[in-house]
Write a structure and sequence with these properties.
Elements lengths: L14 H8 L3 H11 L2 H4 L7 H8 L3 H14 L2 E3 L5 E3 L1 H6 L9 H5 L5 H12 L15 H4 L3 H25 L9 E5 L5 H9 L4 E6 L3 H11 L6 E5 L14 E5 L7 H14 L5 E6 L10 H13 L7 H11 L2 E7 L5 E6 L4
Parallel strand pairs: 3-4, 3-6, 4-5, 6-7
Antiparallel strand pairs: 1-2, 7-9, 8-9
Helix pairs in contact: 2-8, 4-5, 5-14, 10-11, 13-15
Length: about 350
């Protein structure tokens, strides 16, 4: 396959193609809620808060958060000022068993789908299931990435997406990179986003922080992009503070945070704040929910596949801003890029 020019965008927008893949597990989570847990019938009346729903149904909080956000984005639930989730009229008419318009039987034919069965367990335990399409793989996604064959396949999938999203990110960040010199692409996979930033900003250099065997995949990608003189790869664990380089004034987390739960995100941002110089920039590039977590619907749908197969989910711009603030960052702002993605960025200020 011909290597794409990282400084050029395609003439068409692949948004609908990205959305088909990103939202593919949303129907399975809805099916599990209807057919296994009879969620909406049991949630009539005043409903409940996230913690109450977790207690009543035996759900893990991370998965319940993803499910409730999906239902709010679809208009099946509303969340009141006290954090209570109540059925909407649509849910009461079509998703409650006692209603003459109940559509539950329409979903019964889907209840034995493998991902529906996965969600029943993941909702109860909070532990991610095996990545779809790899039935012989016993480990979850995070452990599977230590396997060279799996890592090659998964990284290739993310790399092809990054050719488009990386250029869009590089363009959107232009005003913020004028005075910066070196980017650290944290958990950067193939390094495609580091490549895109460097290719589109002639003054930048970059480093990719990745563990084996992905570090070699990144070196190969950088070589293919003819950027080896401006980008190097550091073998290391991003959760180990001592393995972070300290000569970079931009830290990029591109599609990293959504793979992890809140404690891990806090650790990564603490490491970032400790490693950056004063004036340094941290860039979190993700699919973000809005501050109220009422949508956008495609992001709420994408969160389902993350909740199924990783330890994370999609976060709201407000949640990410709060994480950055807790870590000590200032001048926090957010904006959209492309493909339902966006950026939350912040600065490390001097003493």
């Amino acid at each position: 396959m011909k290597q794409a020019d990282l400084t050029v965008l395609p003439s068409t927008d692949p948004l609908s193609i990205l959305r088909y893949r990103d939202g593919i597990y949303a129907v399975d989570l809805l099916t599990a809620a209807i057919c296994e847990f009879d969620f909406f019938s049991r949630n009539t009346g005043e409903g409940g808060t996230l913690s109450q729903i977790c207690e009543n149904f035996g759900f893990a909080p991370r998965l319940a958060d993803v499910m409730l956000t999906l239902f709010v984005a679809n208009g099946y639930l509303v969340c009141d000022d006290e954090g209570g989730y109540r059925n909407t009229k649509t849910a009461n008419e079509h998703l409650v068993k006692s209603s003459p318009w109940f559509l539950g039987p329409y979903y019964d034919s889907l209840k034995d789908r493998p991902v529906v069965m996965d969600f029943i367990q993941v909702l109860k335990t909070g532990k991610p299931a095996v990545w779809g399409g790899y039935e012989d793989q016993q480990d979850d996604w995070h452990e599977a990435m230590h396997d060279e064959v799996f890592a090659q396949s998964f990284t290739a999938a993310m790399n092809c997406r990054g050719l488009y999203l990386g250029k869009k990110l590089a363009d959107a960040l232009e005003p913020y990179l004028v005075d910066q010199k070196r980017v650290l692409d944290v958990g950067g996979g193939s390094g495609i986003y580091a490549c895109a930033l460097v290719a589109n900003h002639a003054h930048l250099k970059a480093r990719v922080l990745e563990q084996a065997p992905i570090d070699q995949i990144a070196r190969d990608q950088i070589e293919q992009c003819d950027l080896a003189e401006r980008i190097d790869v550091v073998n290391g664990d991003m959760f180990e503070r001592k393995q972070w380089p300290e000569d970079c004034d931009v830290h990029l987390f591109s599609n990293v945070m959504h793979d992890w739960d809140v404690p891990e995100i806090r650790i990564l941002l603490e490491h970032s704040h400790q490693s950056l110089p004063a004036g340094g920039l941290v860039v979190v590039h993700e699919t973000f929910l809005n501050s109220a977590k009422t949508g956008p619907l495609p992001v709420a749908e994408y969160s389902c596949i993350l909740a199924h197969s990783t330890q994370g989910r999609c976060y709201s711009t407000l949640e990410m801003a709060d994480f950055l603030h807790e870590a000590g960052f200032k001048k926090i702002r957010s904006f959209d890029t492309a493909g339902d993605r966006g950026v939350v960025l912040a600065r490390k200020m001097g003493d």
